Amino acid sequence: MEEPELNYIKMFNAGERITINNCSFGYLSHRIVFYLLNLHIKSRHTYFARAGTSRDEDSYKTDASLSDQGRLYAEKMGQALLQHRDGERLGLIERGGPDVPLKPLRVWTSTRRRTVETADWLYNQGYSVRQRTQLSQLNPGVCEKMSERRIRLEMPDEVAKHEADPYHHRYPRAESYHDLAVRLEPIILELERQQDDLLIIAHESVLRVLYGYLMACNATDIPGLSFPRNEIIEIIPASYSNEATSIAIPDLPPEIIPSSPEDLEIPVPPSEAPSGAATPMVLGPPKADASVSRLGTPRITTTPPTNGSSTPPGLGEGSLLLVERALRD
Predict the structure, then answer these.
(1) Which residue in 56, 157, 240, 324 is a FRET match for 141, CA 20 to 30 A apart?
(2) What is the C-alpha separation between 222 and 168, in angstroms, rounded?
(3) DSSP state, residue 140
(4) Could you report the per-residue pLDDT of 93-128, keeping only the tens digit for each?
(5) Is 243 exposed, middle or buried, given 0-12, 13-18 or 19+ CB atoms closer than 10 A?
(6) What is the pTM of this model?
(7) How distant is the alpha carbon of residue 78 from its chain centre?
(8) Cβ atoms of residues 31 and 322 within 8 Å
(9) If DSSP codes are grouped into helix, strand and coil, which group holds residue 198?
(10) What pLDDT is attached to residue 310?
(11) Are 316 and 305 in contact (CB under 8 A)?
């Protein structure tokens, strides 16, 4: 492609050189170039873990500290992750691989108290912990601490809109998953630039969006993804797809394991689901999809891009999160 009148961007040898011709298509072209400049092909592992349970699970505004069970979870999660990393290194050596040290592990959390305290055990072991404001959970707005029954009685129109489009809909004074994805754009760019292994400790709503980006999930599937506390999700980048596996966290109290205890009110489940003021909102089984398994749990398999092309996940549907702001009215 050498036509001088065309607008194009050419990358050579995975970032060794980039040629930009006619930047007349403005903001969008600059965002694409900025994104491409942050890509690399070095192998690294990304881990997702939930924050521990807090003393006031249902409150968004309180920003409560970890409960005793939350502190137990933080310790067991850290131990399970470090044992897994050591096991992977020993397994590589046994298969004839080089005896080299593990890559450094970095930890990102939000600025909310329970995510910071969940990382304290790893911080005390000498690992680097960084707090990022963009990793804060989805804001439930006026629906905070409201039961499903009350939401349906007081806001039937909002419930209908949410059921029609759970990714883009926002409740009054709340955030939608689309809003959260736009907020996470700087995190996604830095995630692509990261060369060390990375553990992200965050609320489930944040993990849904980041997992959806890395695994090229459809936007409609993101609100239904589930991350129980007894698992750490490990994502390993590959050329045209990312591989996700789960790391079990043993000996946790069963009452803290189910996914989304903090999301009691958001999202509202389908109308045919049973209703109750104190009943956890359980999403029904999602549509069959390459990136989602039963009950919305991330499928622990190699997942190809969902757009049917050979485009790597970083350049496929997930990368739209980086330019959606330019495409909005």
Answers:
(1) 324
(2) 11
(3) -
(4) 998 888 888 899 999 999 999 999 999 999 999 999
(5) middle
(6) 0.75
(7) 19
(8) yes
(9) strand
(10) 37
(11) yes
